[in-house]
Amino acid sequence: MSDEKKLQLAKKLRAADPGKTRALIGFDGFVDTVVHPVDTRTGPDTYIRIRTIRDYGEKFLAAAGLSMNIEMVPHESKIGGISAILANSLSLLGLDLTFIGACGEDALVPVYKEMAERSKVYSICDPATSDAIEFMDGKVISSKLEPLKNSNWEHVRKHIPLDTLVDIYDRADLIGYGGWALSINVNSIWKGVINEVFPLMKSAGKKQMFFDLSDPAKRTKEDILEAIDLIRAHRDRFTVGIGFNEKESFEICELYGKTREDFSSMRDVPEFLREKLGLAYVVVHPVKSACGCDGETSVEVQGPFCAEPRLTTGAGDNFNAGFLTARMLGLPLDECLMTGTANSGFYVRNARSATYGELCDFIEDWGNGKVTE
C-alpha cells in the first residue's frame, strides 16, 4: 500500500465511529507475566537478554544429559489470552464491548478491572496464568491451564441468566470466539449457545462472526476437525471468518494435504483455506505482512515491521482487533489488513494496545514516513 493510501486510510478512520459497533467476545482469560530470559547477569539491576528463540533452544540442547538454570526477570503482568487481549484492544478502539471470560471466580482479578471500566465484563471462572518469555523474534508461552477447565457451558449458565445471554447475542453486531486450543471445554459453550441461545434470538439478518483457534498443534486432528464443523454450523446465522498466524495457517493446511512447500506465496494460503473451510473469509498474519481472501479479493499487504519489539505477546490479537474494527466500519479487505498491521505495529512498539485516536495517528505517521523498523 502506497504512502498516499495509508494517509487516505487514516482519514477514513478518523471520519468513522467505531462506537456504533456492539461486539461480544469470549471465552478465555489469562494473567500473563511477561519475562525476559537472562543470558548474562551484569549487575544487580542489569543483564543481557537471550535475544532469539534459537539461542534459547541451543542452551537446552547444550544442557542435554546435564542440567541448567535460566533466570527469568519479570517485566510486567497483563491481560492474557486470545479472546481477552482481543477484547481489551477492541474496547480501547472504542467499540461497545461485552466480554465473557475467565477473569476471576468471585471477583475480577486486578489486571481486568481497567477493561471492565470501559466495557461490560462477565466473569465465569478464574483465569489461567502464563509466563510469556519474550525474545526479539517471538515468544515462548508457558501456561498453567487448570482454571480454564471451568470455561464451559455450566459455568456460563451459573454466572449469566439465559435471558441475559440471549439479549447479549441479540444486540451484538460482531461476535468473536478465541482461544479454543487452550480451553479444553469451550466446545460445550459453543454448543450450548447454538442449542439454547440461538433458538430464542429475535434479531434478523446475518451478523459478523470471527474465530481464532489459537495454536492447534497440541490438539488432535479429530479435535480440530470437530471445531471446524462447529464453526461451519454458525454459517446460516452469521457471516463467518477466521484468522491465523503463519504457523497456525500451515498446521491447518496440513489437515488438507498441503505443506508450506506447496505454496508459491503466503497470499495463496488464505485462498486455499477459505475454499477448504467453506467460510466467508480467511486472514493470515505473518510477522512482516498480512494476507486474506474473502471470495472477491485475495490480497497481501506489508506491515510496519519492528526489528526490536518491546512486546510481542498479543501482537496477533491486536492485529485481529484492528482488522475487525476496519471490517465493521465497512472498509475493503486491503484496508482492513492494513489497519490490523498498524494496530499490531503500535502494540509491539509501545508494549500496549492503541486507542482509536492513537491508531489513526500511527497510520498517518506511517504514511508520512515517520514509522521506522
What report would you give on this structure?
The protein has 373 residues and is an alpha/beta fold. It has a single domain (3-36, 81-367), classed as UDP-N-acetylmuramoyl-L-alanine:D-glutamate ligase (3-Layer(aba) Sandwich), CATH 3.40.1190. The protein has 13 helices and 14 strands. Strands 6-5-1-9-10-11-12-13-14 form a 9-stranded mixed sheet, with helices on both faces. The model has no long low-confidence stretch (mean pLDDT 96).
Topology:
Layout (H helix, E strand, L loop, with lengths): L2 H13 L6 E5 L3 E14 L2 E4 L3 H10 L9 E9 L1 H11 L3 E6 L11 H6 L1 E4 L4 E8 L2 E7 L8 H7 L2 H10 L2 E5 L7 H12 L9 E6 L8 H12 L5 E8 H10 L12 H10 L3 E5 L3 E5 L4 E5 L12 H14 L4 H18 L5 H12 L6
Parallel strand pairs: 1-5, 1-9, 2-7, 5-6, 9-10, 10-11, 11-12
Antiparallel strand pairs: 2-3, 2-4, 7-8, 12-13, 13-14
Helix pairs in contact: 1-13, 3-11, 9-10, 11-12, 12-13
Features:
alpha/beta; 24% strand; UDP-N-acetylmuramoyl-L-alanine:D-glutamate ligase; five-stranded mixed β-sheet; 373 residues
Could you state the order of secondary-structure elements as H and E? HEEEHEHEHEEEHHEHEHEHHEEEHHH
Spans of at least 5 consecutive residues with low confidence: none
Rounded to an integer in angstroms, the radius of gyration calculated over CA atoms is 20 Å
Q: What is the domain tally?
A: 1
Query: What would CATH call the architecture?
Result: 3-Layer(aba) Sandwich
Largest sheet: 9 strands, mixed
Number of helices: 13
Strand order of the largest sheet: 6-5-1-9-10-11-12-13-14
